[in-house]
């Protein structure tokens, strides 16, 4: 890879006085540094390989990794809050020249910025794995685990939340690669620390420019331990991102500690990646080197599956050069994992010590953000609810409230379903899958009353009083009549005789069912006693001078009645004498009988 020098002359952002003093000192050294830098570059160009690798690290600032040791409690900012990604990072330094290269490998320690001293790190006491705070990555997995929204921050301003050493590096490259199992990154949005940068297109395929390059994986055969060979579009051993950026001089340089480096298998992560954006911060006019990249990636489940468990490990050029062996990196299990690798690397030939604590050389910072996309049974299934109809009082079956029940699953209602009242009732079916995951599906239970109208109703009879000779109304023999029903007496009611008469009312409901209700008809004779009786007169013979008895002038006297002659009877003269008997009945009515 050919290099050319392009130093940056950039004005300082607003900062405190001590930072301003540092800036003046930096500017004062630029001209001399540029000359020295060019000489170093020309003298060592044939021995330099620009390389960069991507792999999850195991360092003193590993975060969110339950199985990793030395988990850091320190947080540089809130950019990664709420992320679904596990992040690990590594920082490394090497000389530009191959002379003494191995002994010069180091962890570049960036000092803490304080009121009394300018420093690039926000970490108390400084930071030997500065990559952790320089590069920030947040991955957000969508609800159905089909895509991921990524936000990558590489810091390059002199103060504030975006303060980062990339501000004063002369030739930094920013690198973002996406793993196998992720589709082409799309919907790009790029900004610096203050505003969007419209020079970056949304389309990955249009991203190339004078300072930007993209790489896409090519068909590569992968032979698995079981002897099966499959082909995938990945960078592989010959891909430029693996040979150059993840090689022994660039991101593959992970520091002098063999154990820490062995846990950061960046080569394998880069080898099995498919897309990369290479962004060179080349322009001397760039005043704000911060870049905030946002993009989306679709998840390709088949690739994740086939390049998951038992995916072969790869060689490490860095391990070979360090004498640790090409296979010194510990293998990584890719089962159900996708990731992006972010690098910031610069070949620094000159500059102030605050920017380059190890002197001139190649400074490499990388971070790998991994997301577990393993799908639970609940993720795999999407049971659909359906309306279930049950009879009032019956117990509905939860399985009947679903279109289908995934094999081996248990189903139940979240709360008991009350079917005592007809109508639609909303409830929730809980599906518990074999792996213990659950789904909750809203459903409707339609409760119907299937009883006949006769079963639904219980009309009560009541006594009806009618006048002798009148016809009783069947409806009046019930306390209540169900709407739409017809009523009649089972047999005709004879009201010619007063008294209580038992009969039956037949109710015929709208659905044709019937009820029979026993009732009583009270038949009353409302006539006066005079209307009820017809006393007959008879001839009474008395002796002249005797007083006849009115009662003897009648064939019979109705009980309780009073009888009298309408006018006195003169018996002083013998012979027949016509007169009238007045019958006064108990009710006060009267009859006059001649």
What would you note in describing this structure?
- The protein contains eleven helices and 23 strands.
- With 594 residues, it is an alpha+beta fold.
- The chain has four domains: 359 residues, no CATH class; 71 residues, Immunoglobulins (Immunoglobulin-like, Sandwich); 72 residues, Immunoglobulin-like (Sandwich); 67 residues.
- 13% of the residues lie in helices and 28% in strands.
Spatial order of strands in the largest sheet: 1-12-11-4-9-6
Oligomer: single chain
Rg measurement, Å: 53 Å
Shape: rod-shaped
Q: Supply the number of helical segments.
A: 11
Fraction in helix: 10-25%
- Give the total of beta strands: 23
Structural class: alpha+beta
The main β sheet shows up as: 6 strands, antiparallel
User: Kindly, what is the distance between the CA atoms of the first and last residues, rounded to a whole number of angstroms?
Assistant: 155 Å
Average pLDDT number = 84
Low-confidence stretches: 1-71
Strand portion = 25-35%
Total number of domains: 4
List keywords for this structure.
single chain; 594 residues; alpha+beta; Immunoglobulin-like; six-stranded antiparallel β-sheet; 11 helices; 13% helix; rod-shaped
């Amino acid at each position: 890879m050919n290099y050319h020098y392009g130093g940056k002359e950039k004005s300082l952002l607003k900062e405190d006085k001590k930072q301003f003093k540092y800036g003046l000192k930096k500017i004062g050294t630029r001209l001399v540094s540029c000359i020295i830098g060019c000489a170093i570059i020309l003298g060592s160009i044939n021995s330099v390989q620009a390389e960069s690798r991507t792999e999850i690290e195991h360092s003193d600032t590993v975060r969110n990794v339950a199985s990793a040791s030395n988990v850091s409690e320190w947080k540089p900012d809130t950019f990664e809050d709420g992320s679904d990604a596990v992040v690990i990072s590594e920082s490394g330094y090497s000389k530009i020249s191959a002379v003494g290269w191995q002994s010069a490998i180091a962890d570049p320690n960036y000092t803490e910025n304080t009121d009394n001293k300018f420093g690039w790190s926000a970490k108390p006491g400084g930071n030997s794995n500065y990559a952790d705070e320089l590069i920030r990555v947040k991955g957000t997995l969508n609800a159905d685990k089909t895509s991921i929204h990524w936000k990558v921050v590489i810091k390059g301003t002199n103060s504030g939340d975006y303060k980062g050493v990339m501000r004063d590096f002369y030739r930094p490259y920013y690198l973002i690669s996406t793993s196998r199992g992720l589709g082409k990154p799309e919907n790009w949005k790029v900004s610096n620390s203050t505003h969007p940068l419209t020079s970056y297109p949304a389309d990955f395929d249009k991203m190339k420019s004078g300072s930007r390059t993209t790489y896409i994986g090519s068909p590569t055969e992968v032979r698995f331990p079981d002897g099966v060979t499959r082909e995938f579009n990945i960078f592989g051993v010959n891909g430029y991102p693996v040979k150059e950026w993840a090689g022994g001089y660039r991101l593959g340089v992970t520091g002098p500690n063999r154990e820490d480096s062995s846990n950061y298998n960046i080569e394998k992560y880069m080898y099995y990646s498919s897309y990369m954006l290479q962004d060179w911060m080349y322009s001397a006019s760039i005043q704000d080197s911060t870049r905030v990249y946002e993009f989306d990636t679709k998840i390709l489940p088949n690739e994740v599956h086939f390049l998951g468990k038992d995916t072969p490990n790869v060689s490490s050029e860095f391990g070979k050069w360090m004498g640790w062996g090409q296979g010194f990196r510990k293998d990584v299990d890719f089962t159900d994992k996708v990731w992006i690798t972010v690098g910031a690397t610069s070949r620094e030939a000159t500059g102030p010590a605050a920017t380059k604590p190890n002197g001139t050389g190649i400074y490499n910072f990388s971070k790998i953000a991994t997301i577990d996309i393993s799908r639970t049974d609940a993720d795999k299934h999407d049971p659909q609810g359906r309306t279930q109809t049950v009879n009032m009082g019956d117990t509905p079956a939860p399985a009947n409230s679903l279109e289908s029940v995934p094999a081996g699953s248990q189903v139940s209602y979240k709360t008991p379903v009350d079917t005592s009242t007809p109508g639609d009732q909303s409830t929730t079916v809980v599906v518990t899958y074999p792996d213990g995951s659950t789904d909750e599906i809203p459903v409707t239970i339609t409760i119907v009353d299937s009883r006949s109208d006769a079963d639904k109703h219980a009309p009560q009879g009541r006594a009806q009083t009618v006048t002798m000779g009148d016809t009783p109304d069947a409806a009046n023999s019930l306390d209540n009549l169900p709407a739409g029903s017809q009523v009649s007496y089972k047999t005709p009611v004879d009201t010619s005789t007063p008294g209580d008469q038992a009969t039956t009312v037949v109710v015929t409901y709208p659905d044709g069912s019937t009820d029979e209700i026993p009732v009583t008809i009270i038949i009353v004779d409302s006539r006066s006693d005079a209307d009820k009786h017809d006393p007959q007169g008879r001839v009474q013979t008395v002796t002249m001078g005797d007083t006849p008895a009115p009662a003897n002038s009648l064939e019979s006297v109705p009980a309780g009645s009073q009888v009298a002659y309408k006018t006195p009877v003169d018996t002083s003269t013998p012979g027949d004498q016509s007169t009238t008997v007045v019958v006064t009945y108990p009710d006060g009515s009267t009859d006059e009988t001649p």
